[in-house]
Design brief:
Order of helices and strands: EHHEEHEHEEEEHEHHHHHHH
InterPro entries: BtrH_N (IPR026935), DUF4872 (IPR032369)
Distance between the termini: 50 Å
Oligomer: single chain
Number of strands: 9
Structural class: alpha+beta
Pfam families: BtrH_N, DUF4872
Largest sheet: 7 strands, antiparallel
Protein name: BtrH N-terminal domain-containing protein
Strand content: 5-15%
């Protein structure tokens, strides 16, 4: 058995920030989950639909692993990333740091993890690994998934080898906090402005505030879009609220990040952004509830109301990001 010492196996709300928290606390840097998310410029929006998809997907954050790269660049962390097509090499890439006393993070498909009760393929899932024996791997996942958990080595291997949307080639990574660490408080404004710029100037209409406006036009059609609305619509609502988003499609996390920032930065623009994201978070939760109700009842009026709220959300988030871009 190999086990990293002094691991605080604290599960948080979102998978990537949970794993980052484990790695950074082991290095002596303890930041809140909203701060990790915000310094990683994690907030975004995407409306994703295609002919090959059974039902549209609403995403509220940047693509998998981009948050980690952003955070490492912002704070001057040493990020060592390993990828390979070889399962044997992939195992060496995680066993070596653990044997040396360091936790490692893995990107994988959660479908194959033993402790996941909701068996849905998601190739952008991230966990921290801090130990293994002959049969099992010892992981830290989100609090809703159990925090400190175990899965079979065979299941872990399948999860890492899976291919499909958002998967990576057995990706693993470690983080080192070096003497060149930048003070987190000094990186708040650049991180916020990076996030705001991407949100306000999306390259395609499916992203950012334009993506929310597009969603407002599409959601009222969702009863016709689905072959099984009683399953698809409530599932979409669950993904928005409880599938590692922290609630309100990551808006709760960003609201709390901005609130934490107001404690160290005195700015009317920051206070405006926080106030608007507080409003946005409440509305996103209401939208999810309306989508679920539409699926359960078959009543289109719920989707019409959700569409109206999404029009308003596009405006609110655009105004919030415009204020934040002025920091």
């Amino acid at each position: 058995m190999a086990m990293v010492k002094d691991i605080e196996a604290r599960g948080m709300q979102h998978c990537e920030t949970t794993a980052l928290g484990v790695l950074l606390r082991h290095e002596g840097l303890d930041l809140s989950e909203p701060m990790l998310f915000g310094l990683g410029s994690g907030l975004s929006f995407i409306y994703w639909d295609s002919k090959g998809m059974g039902f549209p997907f609403l995403g509220g954050r940047v693509k998998p692993f981009e948050l980690t790269r952003n955070l490492a660049a912002a704070l001057g962390l040493e990020l060592l990333v390993e990828e390979t097509t070889s399962p044997r090499k992939a195992w060496q890439n995680v066993a070596a740091p653990i044997d040396a006393g360091r936790p490692v993070a893995l990107q994988l498909d959660s479908y194959h993890l033993d402790y996941f009760t909701n068996k849905v393929h998601f190739g952008g899932h991230v966990v921290a690994m801090y130990g293994y024996d002959e049969q099992d791997a010892h992981l830290v996942d989100t609090d809703p998934q159990g925090g400190a958990v175990t899965t079979s080595l065979a299941g872990l291997a399948r999860a890492r080898a899976e291919r499909g949307p958002m998967t990576a080639k057995h990706r693993s990574f470690t983080i080192t906090v070096s003497s060149g660490l930048r003070t987190p408080q000094d990186r708040i404004i650049p991180a916020i402005r990076t996030c705001a710029d991407a949100f306000l100037n999306p390259p395609i209409a499916n992203l950012g505030h334009r993506g929310i406006e597009k969603t407002a036009k599409q959601v009222p059609k969702w009863l016709q879009r689905s072959d099984n609305p009683r399953e698809d619509l409530p599932r979409a609502a669950v993904l928005m609220e409880r599938a590692g988003t922290g609630g309100a499609l990551f808006r709760n996390l960003y609201r709390d990040f901005l609130a934490e920032c107001t404690q160290v930065i005195g700015s009317s623009h920051l206070r405006t952004g926080h106030s608007l994201y507080t409003e946005a978070a409440t509305l996103w939760t209401q939208v999810a509830a309306l989508i679920a109700a539409a699926g359960e009842s078959g009543e289109a009026k719920n989707l019409t109301q959700a569409g109206s709220m999404l029009h308003e959300l596009s405006r609110i988030e655009r105004d919030a990001m415009q204020a934040l871009s002025l920091l």
